[in-house]
Amino acid sequence: MNRTKSKTELSRRTYLKATGVAAAGTVGLAGCAGTASATGTLATQVTDQPGDIADFESCVVTIQGIWVKPSGGDDDTETAETEGDDSGTDGDQTDGTQTETGAAEEGTEAEVDESDAREYHEFEEPQEADLVELQNGNTQLIDERELDVGTYEFLQLDVTDVEGVLDGGDEAEVDTPGSAPLQFKEPFEIREDQVTTFTGDFTPVRRGRTDRYLLQPVASGTRVEYGDEAGDGSQ
């Protein structure tokens, strides 16, 4: 049992309502102009590096969509202040490498970007991933789509449900912090007619001595690869 679904539903619906009319107008204008932007492919994968996942018999996460933020976007509302924050990635990006910044860390509200500059992409069907099966370098592809060529500041997973069962058979409460969702602050590029593979690493972390867990990003396991550099660890 968890509260993730109710926390994320309002944010997603509010965004879609607010942007629906504008998006329709944009599509109409693009059709009149008769031109199309250059695009590339974003392949989104998930994995689980060691946290407290060893406590679980299964930990099934349902993902409804992703948020991405193009660089240089307008940050009019609810933009996080991250200056002076040393807990995230350093922004350096090397093709096919991962950012080495430590184990799972709980974000804070000040570190999360919820500005209108984000783009939301809903999946045709919700995707389920059992984190127990995604250890030891295993990954699962949850989405593949075309995006406009450019640089993006982060990728965020829209987790709508989590069902956790502990090794002994008891149900565990697994959630994402309400003020700090699974937002991976790893910049990436979309290159024309190429595939960018973004692997988001996250894990359940036990809270004290209770059976309550929080899903938290693992910066050291989150990586971006381009073209043929993507590894073959998929399920």
Automatic annotation (TrEMBL):
It holds the Pfam family DUF4382. Residues 73-93 have a biased composition (Acidic residues). It comes from Halobellus limi. This is DUF4382 domain-containing protein. Residues 39-217 form the DUF4382 domain. InterPro entries: DUF4382, TAT_signal. Signal peptide: none annotated. Residues 94-105 have a biased composition (Low complexity). Residues 67-118 are annotated as: Disordered. It comes from the Archaea.
